[in-house]
Structures are given as C-alpha cells and as structure tokens.
Amino acid sequence: MPTPQPVRQQGGIFDPNTFTRPENGRSLSYPILIVGGSTAAYAATLAALRSGITVCLVQPQAVVGGQFTAQALPASDDGDLLRQAATPFQVEGERFAISKTQRSFRDRQRELQKLNGRKVANPGGGWVSPLATTPVVAATAMNEAIAPYLAQGKLILIPFAEPIRVVTSDNPGQRRRVTGIVFQDRQNNHTFTINSRVILEATELGDLLELGNIESRVGQEARSETGEQALPERALPQCQQSFTFGAVVERTAPGRGVAIGAPPGYNSSPWLNAAEFQSAFWHKSRGQWEPQPREFFNPFGIFRYRRISRAAENEKTINPGDVTVLNWGQHQHGENGPWCCGNDYRVGVLVGVSREERQRHIQQARDRARAYVHYLQTNGVPDLKPRGDLTWTRDGIAIEPYIREARRGIAATTIRHEDVAKPFFPGQARAKSFEDSVGIGQYHYLDLHGNDEPGHASLPGENVIALPFTLPLGALIPINTDGLILSAKSIGTTHITNAAYRMHPVEWAIGEAGGYLAALAVNAGVEVRDIATNETLKRKLQGTLTRNGIPLFWFDDIAHDDPDFEAIQVLAAAGIIRSENYTDLHFRPSASVNRAVVATALVKLLGFELVSPATPTFVDVLPNYRWAYPMIETLVAKQIAAGVGDRRFAPERPITREQLSFLVKKALPAAYDRAFARTPADKQVLQRRELSRVLYEVMRMKLGI
Asked: Are the CB atoms for 248 and 258 separated by under 8 Å?
C-alpha cells in the first residue's frame, strides 16, 4: 500500500487536488456525514476522525472553520472564566473551561503567530478577547489537525457545495429517519448524493431542518412554546439576531491608505446611511448608549477592540502595520433615537425567507461593511488598507457573514432562559447542570443583537446575566427524527439562550460532542437517541468525552491533565459527587470526605431514589435503605474492634479509605479490586478525588462499561 503523501496548504486553504468533487448524479456513502462550514462542523469532524471513523465533510467554501476563518472573526468571544489568570504567556482558564483539543488549537495559533519571535498569550492584543490571530493563522492551525486524515483517505472534504434536499425513509409506525443529503456544487452545478449512517446538521443557518421539514423554530418563540416568562404571548419569527460581515483592515503609515470605495447606494439606501456610522467608541450609561472620548486609534477604541495582529510588545500601543477586524454593533441613542455605530446589518433576516431574499440581504450586508470602511476613510481615518490576503477576498471583507442565529431544531431537551440566567439560581455559582451533560460553556451575559423588527424580549437587570452552563445531550437530538444530530446554532436552544451558546468556544464544544456522539452511534450500531435514553451508553459517551479532555461539569480546580479528570467529571455530571459548596466552582479534590457524602453517593450510584429529605445525611439514609445495614454493621464492627468506633454513625465525621473499602466490598464485591486498583485501602482519611476515583469504577462495573 503506498505511503500517504503529505497534504499541502497555502494561505489557510488546502491544495485543490486534496478536495473531492463528485461527478454529476453520483451517489456516495460514508459512515458519518457532516454538513456545513461552521466552527462546530470542523470540531465535529476532528472528533469523529479521532474516533477512527471515516468522515465526509461537505461545506460551502474551501476554507474550514466558520467563525474563526470564513467569517473573519478569529478574535474569540470568551467568557470571564476562560480568561481567568491570563498572563502575557498563558491563560489558566484554558485548562478547565474548554476541551484539551480546543486548547491545543488555541496554543497552535500562538505558535504560528509569534510576536517579535516570541510566543505570547494574545498575538493580536485586542482588548475584547484574550486570544486573537488572523483568519489565515486560524485556518492553518485547523488544517494541520485534519491534514493527516485527508492524506489517509479517512476524511473526504467536499467544498463549494450546498444541500438542496434531505433524503428520508418513512416507515409506517416508525420515526422518520434521515438517510442522505442531495447537494449542488455551486461552481459547476453538479448534483450528487451522500448517504450516511449518521448526519450532523452543522450549517450556519439550520438549512437541513428547513429542507427536510424537520421540527424547528425560527426567531423569537411564544411563551407557550418554551415556557420562558421573558417572552411575549405571541411568537415573532422575524425577531432574529442581526448578522455582520467582518472587514479586515490595516493601519498604514500616514498617506498610505488604500481607498475601498463606496458601494452603490451609499448614503441613499437605508442600510447604507452614513449618519448611522461612528468612528468613536460608545458605551452604555444610565441605560443609554453614549459616545466616549475614545477615538478610533485610542488604546480602548474601535481599532484595538478586535485587533488581530500587532507589532508592539505593549498591547496598548497601536502602530502602522497593525491589523484589526471591524465587527462593530449598532446601538440606539436614547429611547427613540437613531441607531448608530458600526456594520451590524439589522434590516432583514436570513432564516425563514426564500433563497432569493436571503441572497439579497447577504449582498446588502456586505455592502454595509464596505460602506462602513468607506465612511471611516472619508471621516478622519484615511490611513486604512483592506487586507484581502487575510480574508480570501479582494476587498478585505469576509467570504461569509458572521451569523448569530439559525433555525433551531425542536430537540429532546430545550435549553431555556430559566436554565441559564442568574435570577433562577440565587446564591449559586452555576446554572442548571444537566445530568446528561456533554460539554460546558460560559459567556457572562445573553448577548442579543436584535434586528429592526419590533417586539424583541427585554431582559432587564440580572435576567441578562448567564451563569456557567452545561450542554445537555438531549439538545443535540431531534425530538422526532432519527439519523440526525443537531449541531452549531441549530441545537435545542431558544432565541434567548442561543445568545450564550453561539459563542466560539461553546460552538466548538457543541461540535466536538456531536462528533463523538456520532462515532459512538456508528460503532455501537445504535440510533443516536438510544444513547440518550440508555444509562450505559450515556455514561460510556461521557467517559469517552472526558478521556479526550472534554469537561462536562463546571470546576475551576480540575484541569485536563488531572489523573482523576474522567472520574470526577462523569460522577459530577451524573449528580453523584458534585461540589461541597454551590456558591463557588471548586471541587476541592484533596479535601476529606464525611460519612454523609459517602452514604448519599452510594445511594445515588446504586440506583435508590431518595424522596426525602432533598439533601440527605448519613443518618437519613440508614432507616430507609435496609440494603445498607450489612455494610454499616461491618463498618461499625471493624471500628469497634479497632477501638475507634461507636454506634452513633456521626454523619459529619470523616471516613477512611479502609472504611470505604468495606462498603464497596459489601455493595458490589465484583468491583472491589478494580475500584481500589489505584487507591490503598488503608486508614488514611479519604479524599474527595479518591471517592470519585473509587465510585467511578463501581459505576462502570455496575453498568458493564
């Protein structure tokens, strides 16, 4: 068998010979099909490939990566926890707030875009994000990870194609099943079909849901649909988030700017009104947006807001040669005043309209980005040069718009405002922790960029604050369709919660979870929904995710490289051993464990459902669960024989490793050797990490994993 040849890339795009371009009318079959060019599509592809499955990725462009690349927004929208303990050389939050693979991607970007020969935490030095590089650097880093699979023929990458029909099997008495997708090559008009065992909907706008008439929602729902009290009684499908074409520009030396030119209709078409543009930074004061004395090149002005390349060591210094992405929202001046500032496009929607209308709004939004650059160049900022070499275009405007909202699938689980917003979790550090979690995310608020449609829901005060949240497996599973996994912005969120789940790191997590989910379904020969409803398969998936460095539960003191990461994460997700104190995100792995915690964990693990009290103690457990008596009698006898026991079972007293070993041996003897393989059964006080380590093996033995 010939040795696979290395796959070449240039400027963030693979050699065209690497791509597969099916002939007209051709029908092909692969175990997993991923549809779309989103960040989630890329992350899902990489995850499935690492599981050993052949993957076909069909996308609309040649460049992979979505938000980071084709949409020209490589300045990652990171939550506060991901930024934690940032230094000039590293970001500590990357060890627990994102997956190991995503962290590697971020680190590779830093290696590819060094600052004056040195690797730094934030090569671009923008002030809104702790990590920013150029789109080409992001694409190059992404390509490097999948190139070996292309060379081996494990990845089939088909560019320039869009789905035009969903193929389903409709058997009476059974759920409809998606079996394939018909695509059209936009360059040569060829149509072809890809059949697959599992298909991921990872398009930017949820197109498979529309084409397949699969249960979905568009725009802002009615309160009766989701139960969210912040919503009005009537659904408003046209209330969608605005979208934006990013524009990449360089600050030049004085007099060296390159004019981009005004688009047709400048200052006459409503979406190209020059009066709406501003070059100064605006901020919110007393509920209204007001201008601040921060001019365009101010250290905290618009240019450095999403700067992606710099020359100076000092982040606050802006020099000729520095490059930024213009992705600047619009804000209303006063209660009924005009909208102003940047290149967000608010006058139309892309979801729930004809393809012709969609393309019209896309062109108008692109013209708006060009108009914004033209406005800047003719209103005090002439020294700008479009950097088309960084966007794969001639004018420095992105290939595709930055999408904030898609058609959303109606899923087995819908993530609601009440599941993520701070007021619903008083005194707690986390939002709802779903027991079927397949990932985590955090963005400090629900970032809604509304369009011009009246009636957008208002989220006053703390209702807009999002606590650290989890990603339920059920949100990836269509409520009544098999063979399909929801991904990207099409998962089971709502108009409100999508505003937190759409950010770069979370979308990556969504894709990664979907990739491993698809691989397990293929390898196990089961439907995707079977994994969500079968305890063994669900915990097996969670084990796979955590072994690959994917966090499932929010802890800020358990990193990817912790030897007990898998055990701690899975048991926490399952609700067996979580935090000592729910007002913080600490696990406290070295803290001691008392008897109440052990008793409660054993009851949960061995399948007994507690009715009362809500937070049981060791004493609460004993009278109601006769199965525990032999264990307790053995434990007490051993204690008394050693001269250290009594019959009071004080629930607050620490438990030793030896005492836990007695309980495990009584509860599930077959699991004993496996459970204590890495933990000595001695008289040392048991640590929280050791309890997770031991009981995780008990769980695996009980479930046959």
From this structure: no
Q: Token pair of 146, please?
A: 């999948």
Scanning the structure block, which residue is given the tokens 């004018």?
Answer: 395
Candidates 513, 396, 419; CA nearest to 468 is 419
For 176-210, write each residue's pLDDT tens digit.
999 999 999 999 999 999 999 999 999 999 999 99
pLDDT tens, 503-552? 999 999 999 999 999 999 999 999 999 999 999 999 999 999 999 999 99
Residue type, 253: A
Closest to 160 in 3D by CA, of 62, 79, 93? 62
Residues 191-204 as b or e (16 or more Cβ within 10 Å = b): ebbbebbbbbbbbb
∠35-193-486 over CA atoms, to 5°? 25
Nearest to 102 by CA among 545, 602, 538: 545
Provide, for the chain, the percentages of residues in helix, strand and coil under a 3-state DSSP scheme, each rounded to the nearest 5: 35, 20, 50
- DSSP assignments along 93-115, one per residue: GGGTSS-HHHHHHHHHHHHHS-B
Task: Identify whether the C-beta of residue 408 lies closer than 8 Å to the C-beta of residue 493.
Answer: yes
Alpha helices in 548-656 (DSSP H): 565-573, 595-605, 618-624, 629-641
Q: What is the pLDDT of residue 663?
A: 84
512 membership: H or E segment, kind and range: helix 504-524
Specify the 3-state DSSP secondary structure of 429: coil
